Amino acid sequence: MINEHTLIDAQSSLNKRLTVLIAVAVFVAGLQIFQAITRAWSVTRYEYTIVGPPDEELAAQLQTLGQAGWELISARRATNGAGERATAKYEMISNVLLELGHHRSQFHRVQDDDRSEA
């Protein structure tokens, strides 16, 4: 025969298990939210620069950019004028990975505000 004391003990045990289950669920949900926020804050960002060295400075400019951590994305040879007055230079677009806001070279980087004004 089940007495009142046994029912109270069973109810108490059930309440404790339910409390533990809820605590674990809240912890897991909080951990998931924390990870989602952390991922949103750690989005990979790059800065870009555009340089246009003349032909005779191309190799040196590429070395300087590479040593500063820049990666060449695109390059094309552009000419200005015709005949003997023509000048040529390479238009190069490069990017560098941002690391916690530290700048790794002396080259100009486009900021978010600069892009919105253009």
Descriptive tags:
118 residues; alpha+beta; Translation Initiation Factor IF3; three-stranded antiparallel beta sheet; 46% helix; disordered C terminus
Describe this structure as you would to a colleague:
The structure is a single chain. This protein has 118 residues and is α+β, with helices and mostly antiparallel strands. The protein has two domains: 1-43; 46-117, 2-Layer Sandwich (Translation Initiation Factor IF3), CATH 3.30.110. Helix content is 46%, strand content 23%. A three-stranded antiparallel sheet has the order 1-3-2, covered by helices on one side.
How does the SSE layout of this entry go?
Elements: H1 4-41, E1 46-51, H2 58-67, E2 71-80, E3 87-97, H3 112-117
Antiparallel strand pairs: 1-3, 2-3
Low-confidence stretches: 100-118
Beta strand %:
15-25%
Broad CATH class of the largest domain: Alpha Beta
Q: Could you tell me how far the N terminus lies from the C terminus, measured between alpha carbons in angstroms?
A: 84 Å
Which overall shape is indicated by the principal axes computed on the Cα atoms? rod-shaped
State Rg.
Answer: 31 Å
Which fold does the CATH topology of the largest domain refer to?
Translation Initiation Factor IF3
Order of helices and strands: HEHEEH
Number of domains: 2
Percent of residues in helices: 40-55%
Number of helices: 3
Q: What's the average pLDDT? A: 76
What is the topology, as strand order, of the major beta sheet? Answer: 1-3-2
Structural class: alpha+beta
Largest sheet: 3 strands, antiparallel
CATH-scheme architecture of the largest domain = 2-Layer Sandwich
Number of strands: 3
